[in-house]
Amino acid sequence: MLPTLFISHGSPMLALQPGASGPALARLAAELPRPRAVLLVSAHWESRELQVGGATMPETWHDFYGFPRELYGVQYPACGSPALAAEVVELLDKAGLSAHIDPQRPLDHGAWVPLSLMYPQADIPVVQLSLPSQLGPALQTRVGRALAGLRAQGVLLIGSGSITHNLGELDWHAGPAVIEPWAQAFRDWMVAKLAAGDETALHDYRRQAPDAVRNHPSDEHLLPLFFARGAGGAFKVEHSGFTLGALGMDIYSFA
Fold first, then answer.
1. Are 137 and 227 in contact (CB under 8 A)?
2. Which of 6, 91, 167, 229 has the fewest CB atoms within 10 Å, i.e. is most exposed?
3. What gap in Å lies between CA 133 and CA 154, rounded to an integer?
4. 46 near 95, Cβ under 8 Å?
């Protein structure tokens, strides 16, 4: 059975400058059984209610600005899977969670950037599931559990966000050895609670974790972690590190 993954996708420039994350993602993809499809929750598809991308050929959406022209030329032409999208809606409905299909949703950079480093041939169908970010961690845990059975069917479930995400406090000149203590402390608290399986503390992270609001002024980039955890099993750190002083680049699996 496939594990689930939480991937800190960093800046969109990861697609062109993969740093240490690129080899880590490529290694992980090579070690996993080849999935028949990917189902991904991205921090960059926030919604009021659950939606599922149902496009047959979702476009590559460059949902950012101010980056080098070369980045806007990157395409990730993976096909979608309307059949999987319909199955996701059905499974969510059985769990008491209402969802509907968006037949035109493109792939945002939270999806195509990490997938371009894992499966650069873009030959695995990709379906995105939206993030009702105002409903918090508990909903994402519930969504993950509702869809966990897809793992046995060869579907790789991924939450794509960031273990820390305060863009206003990044040091754009910091080298890889520079890590802000407040970012490290938050990351270490999260890892300890994930390893202990302390769901109560994790769901209440904004009150309990050190410098939680400083690390996540809004929590859309952490919420995909709860989706991955809810759908998966035993926790493992696959890759850890920081860039720009305070942007966590951790990758976790839940097998």
1. no
2. 167
3. 27
4. no
Q: Are 39 and 155 spatial neighbours (Cβ–Cβ below 8 Å)?
A: yes
Collapsing DSSP states into helix, strand and coil, what is residue 39?
A: strand
Tokens matching residue 124: 């695995």
Q: Tokens 């859309």 label which residue?
A: 220
Residue 51 to residues 67, 138, 165: CA-CA distances in angstroms?
29, 17, 24
> What's the CA gap between 170 and 182, in Å, rounded?
12
Sheet holding 126-131, edge to edge: 99-102, 50-53, 126-131, 37-46, 155-161, 4-8, 251-254, 235-239
- Dihedral, CA atoms, 7, 218, 47, 152, nearest 10 degrees? 30
Average pLDDT over all residues of the chain: 97
The residue-averaged pLDDT of 138-142 equals: 98
Residue 164 — left, alpha, or beta (φ > 0 → left; ψ -120 to 50 → alpha)?
Answer: beta
CA-based nearest residue to 109, from 74, 144, 84, 156 = 74
Q: Is 216 exposed, middle or buried (0-12, 13-18, 19+ CB in 10 A)?
A: buried
CB atoms within 10 A of CB 14: 23
pLDDT in tens, 149-200: 999 999 999 999 999 999 999 998 998 889 999 999 999 999 999 999 999 9
Do the Cβ atoms of 124 and 78 come closer than 8 Å?
yes
Dihedral of CA 137/99/116/104: which sign?
negative
